[in-house]
Give the backbone structure.
Amino acid sequence: MKAFDRPTRIFFALAAAFALAVALGSLRPEGSALSVSPLTVSVLGKYMCLATLALSVDLVWGYMGILSLGHGAFFAMGGYAFGMYLMRHIGDKGVYVSELPDFMVFIGWEKLPWYWLGTDVFAYAAFLSVAAPGLLALVFGWTAFRSRVSGVYFSIISQAMTYALMLAFFLNALGFGGNNGFTDFKEILGFDIHTRGMATTLFALSAALMLLFYWICRTVSVSRLGLAVRAIRDNEDRVRFAGYRVERVKLFVFTLSAMAAGLAGALFVPQAGIINPNSFSPLFSIEAVICVALGGRGRLYGAVIGAFLVNWLKTTLTGLMPDAWLFVYGLLFVVVTVFLPEGVAGLLSRIRNPLAGRLKGERRGTEARA
Amino acid sequence: MTFPPPPYASPAGNPVRSGRAAPAGRKETAAYRRPRATRALAAAAFCALAFGAGDLPAEDGLAVDPEVRASLASSKVQDRDLAIERLAADFSPEAGAIMAALLAGDLYVDRDTSDLYLRDPGGAGYSPAGSGEPTDGESLSLRKVGTNNRQRSALAGILNGRSLRHPDVNVRREASAALVSDSGADEAFGAFIRELLAEEKDSRVRGNYEKILAARALRDPASSREDILAALGTLKERLSPEAQGLIRERTGAEDPEIAAAAREALSRMEATIQHISLFDTVFFGLSLGSVLALIAIGLAVTFGVMGVINMAHGEMVMLGAYTVWAFQELMPGRPGLALILAVPGSFVVAAIVGAAIERGVIRFLYNRPLETLLATFGISLILQQAVRTFVSSNNRPVVTPPFMAGQWYWTEHLSITWGRFYIIVFCLAVFLMILLVMKRTRLGLEVRAVTQNRPVARAMGVNSGRVDLMCFMLGSGVAGMAGAALSQLANVGPNLGQNYIVDSFMVVVFGGVGNLWGTLVGGLLIGMANKFLEPVNGAILAKIIIMCGIILFIQRHPRGLFPQKGRAAAA
């Protein structure tokens, strides 16, 4: 199998064209034809980050059959890691005119705690935003997969993990700003964060990250490793009996996906302008899962379509009818799981080839029995 | 004898408040009560109380005596003396309210009808004494009832001594206990307490007085050696920081006997305090654990049988709590009855909603546990938003009925909150009920069969669809009852269930799926661990530690405390 099969090629062409159009549009003067406002650019940039998160969920859920209800935690950790860099570079322009972040002055700390050391170096912060979630996923995954925690159990403990982290990040004493988290960022690498150019750059980086991770996922899924991953989804015991170290395969894929989620979080924070413990809430993690479910799991482009659809719906509806959003959102969960088990992407391919859907359906049956 | 006013004015049962809060619509029974008191008003302050306590039981519904009213309305000082004397012998809350208002200068009389009115705090309006709607006072010709200095000091004394000589022993207990923490220093107070001690028969009230006197003895530099030793003996039963401080001072006494006695008293006190806090922690842990177990039992039933984690389970709890609120709204004035009726009511409401969820959604998702999880999560969002939209996004007030409020004193310091006690009992009762259903009924048999092996159970003629439905209804109904219990402990709002759902998942997983005993033990253990960690680490950190502990526990024992054995475990 080739990494760039026909759907992937189409998706790449469309996504790259879309990203290019937005980026060029944002550089055109406001009001002229095809121009895109900075606000729209940063919203689309955030969607790109959330799409990357959805891709990382799809990799472990759609391909490996592990439903993680705690992937938002990796995203948030990456966000916090890069947020530390942003907080350090507010410098003495904060309210308290101190080298320390405002919230530390507020709770009476006199110097940075050890884990903040070096976070003012861009490269280190960027590394941390990948490494910290990666390490968490490695430790969490290792203990869980080694003792063969799977299925609903894994979902529940991953949810407990993100819930515990949320509670921890709410504590002021942890040194991450408590309730309010990080906000009021000023600059990245010396450039003002509020300019048009910065919005475009961040958007372009987010789009590039999404496409890069998409390509990595494709490469993994068509490799021998990818075959093992799908085999684990369909019948874990059989793979184990065939002599594969199932735990290692799972751990590799889980950690890879957590690292991508962390990087997406790091790019998300400067565009959102804020990160707080709510991004650790179980609801946020489940949101990423429903993106994948709506788009169609096991198909990477489905995750991206789902992320854009869900977040676009959310932005539009919370603006228009805040009360209706949760109704629509809840219904989305029900309708997608009951009527669209293959998601929007499945619907597309079924329209194109009715028989393919049937075959997929049978495959799903095997997986369920396992 | 006059008694000096306030420093130790009893906060218990402030007469002003109890008078105004008296329920409206009470019948006017103008029973004339003859006070057996002496003429001298000053003496009446206490003596009337002392005698009156015996033969004038306080009666709810006692309205103001017309003669008292007339005397108060009179412009003669002597008439008002008589009125105060009579009021002193009257233990109804109204009499207390009138005296308090008289002392504060808030008592008014209608010139035409000589009805009494109490000015509301802030002076915005006037409420009739006893009962009736408050008025703005403009349509009446009100005149303030005046008092002189002597009358005011008599009134202050009466009000102070009132609750200490109240015929109801519970009022006396409460009032004397309130005095213990605030023992005044002047001589008149000591004499007053000694006088009360001589009259008192109830041992607990006597104990309170003795402690007051003991603290006074320790504070008094002129106390004799024997007095101090006796005081140390009495005071070691009193577990306040103040008493501890007094005793600690004496540990450095020159007299070796006193110093030794003080040290011994101090260590006894500390040991008692430790025991009490241990008892409190265990009790609070048990009550929190019962709440968790109660919520988790329903979850365990659905999860055990259908292999489905019902994420909308928390919302069933919430619906149960709202049922209590709805019942109380439907039956104003009968919060207790409403609560009791709401227990089966909440079962029915939650079971019906559960049935709708099972028939409407879950039935279509057989064999897809992860997708069921997502679908039920969606349902939980819808239910939450439905409550926000159609009821209110704010918390709803749920009344705690009198039998749930208050405490039961086992000994003086060991007390049990009734509300929490009933919740523990309720949890055990529900648990036993579920256990009986599972072990002794046809439904339970079928449920266990389907849990162990669905295809074989179906082959034997079990209608597995019906079993699923009944199970889901049972689990949801129990969650509803848990909500009814929770309405007494937590705020009833749209997020009520969400706050407990992650914890109750942990309970189920920790206890071992498909094992009811595991759920109960797991719930109680987690609740207990929570309360033991809380004082050391703070509430949030305690929760985090427990979460991490359970996550690690699951790694070592993936099937929980009490794993299912045999073939069922492989399913």
About this structure: The longest strand of chain A covers residues 182-183. DSSP finds 15 helices and four strands in chain A.
